[in-house]
Amino acid sequence: MTSTPTAKKTAERGPAWDWAAGHGPVTGALSATTGALAVATTGAATGMPPAWALAAGAAGAIGHTAAGLKARALGRTIATRAASWLLGAGWTTWAIANGPLSWTALGSLATLGIAHGTAARATALYEEAVEEETLAAAARELARELSADRRAIAAEWAERIERVCGVRLTRVVAVEKWDTGTGFTLDAELPGGGVTYDRIAKEGPRLAADARLPHGCTVAASPGIDQGRVLVDVTTTNVLAEEKPYPADYTPLSLLTGIPWGLRTDGREVPVFLREQCALLVGPTGSGKTNMLHTILAGFARATDVLTWVIDLNAGSAGLPWVRPALGPDGQLSDKVSPGIDWLASSFEEAKLLLETAVTIGKRRKVAYQQLMADANTDLLPVSPRIPQIMIVVDEGAEILVSTDKEMRVLAALILEVIRLLRSMGIRTVLTALGATGSVLGNLMIRREAKTRAALTGGETEGMDLSKMFPGTRGLRTDQAPYKGAGFLGTPESPPGLFKAWRILPNQITEIVHATTALHPPLDDVSREAAGPDYADRWNAARTGWMRDGVLANPGTTPAPDAEAGPGTQSGLNLRALRDPAEPQGGDADRLAREFMREIDARFGTTTEPDASPPEERPRHPGLNLRALRDDPPAPTTPQPPAAGGGPDWLPDAIAAIKAAGAAGMKPSAVADRVGRSRQAVRDALKAAAERDELTYRDNGPHSVYVHPDHA
Known about the structure:
Layout: H1 5-13, H2 25-46, H3 50-70, H4 75-98, H5 103-165, E1 171-177, E2 183-189, H6 198-201, H7 204-210, E3 219-223, E4 229-235, E5 259-264, E6 269-272, E7 279-282, H8 289-302, E8 306-311, H9 320-323, E9 343-345, H10 348-368, H11 370-376, E10 389-394, H12 397-402, H13 406-421, E11 427-433, H14 444-449, E12 452-456, H15 466-469, E13 486-490, E14 497-500, H16 506-515, H17 525-531, H18 533-536, H19 588-604, H20 651-660, H21 668-675, H22 679-691, E15 696-698, E16 705-707
Parallel strand pairs: 7-11, 7-12, 8-9, 8-10, 10-11
Antiparallel strand pairs: 1-2, 2-4, 3-4, 5-6, 5-14, 12-13, 13-14, 15-16
């Protein structure tokens, strides 16, 4: 290392002195005594008049006194400094006159130095003590002001609780005001004689009315630090009526540290822990249930140790917004953006396949991860980004459990099997329902496993029995949360209470999908191997063809004119009369419509659309080209004969392929790939053929196949 010229000069001069540093009791005394000795020695040697030293000391005492008064120093400090100057000046005057180098002079100077140091130290300690006392007095004054406000609140509510509830509190231990400024919490001791907190909890509405709280503000009592204490939460500001947007912070979350589902009335987030618990979300139409379901999916998308599977038999509408941002214009998944959910089922067949795969994964995990759980000394599978938990979200799943439909009963049995068997293996469910009724909550498995429950009331009273939703909790009324997105939420970690769900919009869902693409964990190798092709092909084009309509252009927009269009291209309205029947028009929707019409014609023998004249031979009329304005009458046509067997035209080829497969048969997915049709259309046609005894269906779970009767 090369030294700089400045460093060399500093090393040659020696250590640098800090002349701005202050003196302590010892260095101050040394400085004063050595200075006085130097002045006395110089004065005696040069014959300086002794009175000059006395005058200089008097001037120093006066100057320090004036400076101390200006700085508002303590009187003891001012007196000590003035006395030091006068005593030092007196000794210097005496030493100049009598000689400073005698033992008497040196001894008296040493005594003065010790006295000076002792006085300075005592003065410094006194100043520190006075300063601390001043600060303590200011803190006590502030505490008295705060405590006066709290004492007033404590006295007011103690009197109100005694008058309304008939409970005379022993004392109010503390009053904590919430940081959000929306209320406060009373911590009080209950009287003896077996009085419990629920004596106050059941009178919450009466307490709120007595306090004249605004609508949407409640009084809720919960257990304190022990059974002789009670916590009374009083909300003074209505935060349920305001719309709360979903936070724009898309930082990673973990299932083990909690996923927030909304806000309490005090502004705090409500974390939900679903490692072992299932969840139940209830809300009538218009209460904001679908919106909250999206906030739940947003939390799962941000979790680094969760894979989300969604079942929505209502056209998959709950999961499509989380898949659509990852679909390209051709309907295929993008390489740069992954869906916000890992699997979406919108039909009975796909939902059955999803649930059967979950059961297969759970049973395989039970065997494959025994050593891992033994090493971790736990009977729960250690969930992590390497082995993620699977959360199965079933929209209106509670209704599936109580349905009498044959197919729904199959799904209900699989859902209950997942809930009952796969807790330890990290597969849990979130079910939704339209109401909190006895039929929905009558299943013991739901009541026992779904300890995390949310009820969005929207002010609805029909079908919202909160006593069944939150048994053992009193004082909950639907009219306390009459706003969309507001309701009650209870978890094993926090008692049921009012909360507000965040508002999330489609554009924010798109943002979350893009922001969390890198956070989604892959399914572990053991589970992926157990799931097999049913899981690997979940985004196969044949199985996701029904999603492609979601990426079509907005029908309200006008397409740009094609610069390369031919001379016969018509502008304006796209009327059937202006189309060339020899050239099919439109996109996927038109193609599907034409195929649908052809199948109807083939099955029912309906007539085809009357053939129109070529565009160049058709007479032109001003305005719209309506059929009523045509001069040429429609020519009669003969009905087309139906396809063999009463099915679509491709069905004979499919039956022939199934017959060629022999006793092994063919899965509907293989048939769909062979004939180039969607899996749903193939399933419907094969099912109809089986009903006509043209095929035989062999039910074997995810390996079900269709077999020709010759090989059945």
